[in-house]
From TrEMBL:
This is Neutral zinc metallopeptidase. Coiled coil: none annotated. It comes from Zavarzinia compransoris. InterPro entries: Zincin_1, Zincin_1_sf.
Amino acid sequence: MTHAKFLDRLLAPSLEDIEALAAQALAEIPPALRDRVRGIVIRVDEFADEETLEQMGIEDPFTLTGLYRGVPLRDKSVGDSGAIPDMIFLYRRPILDEWCETGATLGGLVREVLIHEIGHHFGFSDDDMDALD
């Protein structure tokens, strides 16, 4: 769904809208990379839960737009089979706030957060990804 369609409805994009934008962004990444993220669960929630925020030392839930939970590819082993699947969480309300504050397109912002979290799946730290930017 495009930015203009959200404005036409005068409604904030829903969880499902963010999920659809994430699916579109995932479909647009190069096939070689997309194959490496097959099986990752992408979940959209309003905010990170209290336990996650506490574990990360985050007081303001609006500061966390996404999170990767899993074992980075470089650390995976055969013994990991049967483990909980890797997950990428996208947090709707913080993403919407950033969208309003920055003027970026919503699809572009969702893509940016998703790619950042995929970077963690590949084993990149936040500092590594900042250096790439």
